[in-house]
Every structure is written in C-alpha cells, then in structure tokens.
Amino acid sequence: MAYCSKCGSKNEDIAKFCINCGGPLGVQAASQQAPVQQPQPMPQAPEGFTPIPAPPANGGFRPITPENPLPMTPIQPVYAQPITQPVQKQVPKPKTNGFCKAGFIFSIIGLCSVGSTSLLGLILSVIGLFSAKKHDQPGKGKAIFGIICSGVIVLGLGVTIAMCWSDLREDFESGSISDPIEFFYALDGSNERHTKEYQEKTKNVTGQNWVNSLSDNNAYLVFANGNTFKFYEDVDNTSDNYITGKCRIFIGTDAMDQVERKYRNYITKSDINKLISRNSDYKRENFVLLVMTNDCNYKNGKKINDGNWTTMYYGFCYKTISGTYRFVMINMETGTKYDFATEKYFKGNRSNPA
Prior knowledge:
- Helix 2 runs antiparallel to helix 3 (118-135) and helix 2 (98-112) runs parallel beside helix 4.
- A hairpin with a 2-residue loop joins strand 7 and strand 8 (302-319).
- The chain has three domains: 1-34; 98-163, no CATH class; 196-348, no CATH class.
- The chain is 35% helix and 22% strand.
- The chain contains ten helices and ten strands.
- The strands form two sheets. An eight-stranded antiparallel beta barrel has the order 3-4-5-6-7-8-9-10.
- The chain is rod-shaped and about 175 Å long.
- By secondary structure, the protein is of the alpha+beta class.
C-alpha cells in the first residue's frame, strides 16, 4: 500500500497518482509502508488487588471420604394447600310468563270440554306471546300451542254455530238454553240434524201429508217447507176449522235427548222404551218428537185467535210391510192419539183403511 507524500492518503501499490490530491506517486512513495504500530504496555494492577487463584487441575473435585463426608440436608415435608373453589352466586331462573301459562291451561281445558274455555285460552295465549317477547321471558312455546289449539277449536265452533244458528236461535228465544251445558247440548244436536241421514229421516215426516184414520172426522196434517204446518180438523173440509204455525221435528236419539232434557214431566225415556218393547214397529231410530208452535186459529173460516202457544207430540214414523209410511202421534198434555197414514194411501184405501 502506497501513501501520498503530499496528503498522506492511501493508494494502491500500482497507482501513479494520488486518488485524493492527484499528486504523483514516486517509487519511494509506492513502496512506502504504513507505520507499524507498537504494542501497548499492559495496565498495572492497582495496589491491594489480590488475583483470583487458578483452579486446581482436577476442577476442584474433592472425593468423598470418612474425613470428607457428603453433607446431608434434612428434607422438609411439603404439605399441599387446600384448593378453595370460589363461591358462585346462583342467578335466579326467570319465571314463565303468567299469561302464557294461563292461556296454555285454558286451551287444554277447552280441548277436553268441547271448547268451553277455548276463546279465553286463545285471548290469554296471544297476550302472553307478545308479553313474553317484550320482556324476554320463557313460555313462548306454551303460548304458541295455546294459540294453535284454541284457534282451531274456536274456528270450528264458529263455523258450526253459523251452520246451526237457526236451531240455536229458536232455543235461545224459547229459553231452552240457560247455561253453557245446555248450549253445547243444543249445538251437538243441531250439528247432528245437518247430517244427510238425519235429514232423510226428517223428510219421511215432513215430506208427506197425513190423514188420521182413527176417527170419522179425519184430521189432516200438512207440512210446508219442513218448518211450517197446517192442521185441519177434517181432510174433506180445509176451509173452516184449522190452525197454522211453525214446527220443529226431532228424530231418534236426538228426540229422546230432547224429551229427557225438556219434557220429562210429560214422558220419560223409560216410558218410551216400554212402548218400543210392546210394538215391533217402534224403534229408537224412528222415534219422533214434534213441537208445534201455533200462531193462528181459524173457526168456520174466520181467524178467531192470535197468539202463540205450543203443543208437543211424540210418536213413531215407520215403514209398513206394504211399503207405505205410518205416523203415530200422541199429544203430551192431553194424551190424544193420532194414527196417520199418508194422504195418498188413505184416499186410495178409504173404504178399508189400513
């Protein structure tokens, strides 16, 4: 390494000019070496310093001998400290919404009692569902069950009542329905009266004109539209003495239930069963209850009485061996009996009535 004689900068041995000042580098400069640095003297230890002795050759190991026994340190027992679990304060479980619970209970009762409490159960369930959602309370499932269960029952009852309203209205107006039990009896009976089988049996009575064959003055009973009637004293004279009004007809088991509930002071089921046991033509399914509400009374062709009064008849409408129908009818109050034959049969066999 060569040094410039002017500026002292380091240059390569082969360089001819200084890279710093540009001065020429001679032979002496090119071969001139950097000054050799002299070694620095070792620092002296301060007074009073004691050097650390070097370790022995065997690393300081001392063999265990009787004169140099292994020191024994007694082992202290270590006892485990009891672990104490932190006491967690129980958070009280939120209570089921009261409306949801009440709606569920009333819905179950309504389901078991033909809808007697279903409307109340539906209302409480709806209120309970909104209340439980608002306050984030349990019981929503019970409320939903109550809404579905009670809703279906209330809807079904509504449709049934609409279909049976004509019968129910007459029962309400006549005072027959005085409590919820009577209402459901009336509703059940009215629902049965809308069946096809029941209507066919009713038509066997209302679809005929009847003539009484037990007396010389043959009473004549005419039905119109199934719920109105004219009752003449004599089939041969329909312009002088007769009454008109509305009627209700009950057939079979429904008729027997009506007698038991409303007219047991006149006749009982036991009396009806005795009649059935004495005559093979009489059966429970052809038992008839006829309730006639009179509104006009005509005498000698003149209207002599306005006002409503009711006459109840019971009897049997059955088919004879000849294929015609007979209708036996007995007045509950007076005991007057009528043995009706169809008008067509009566006039065809007038000389020898069956």
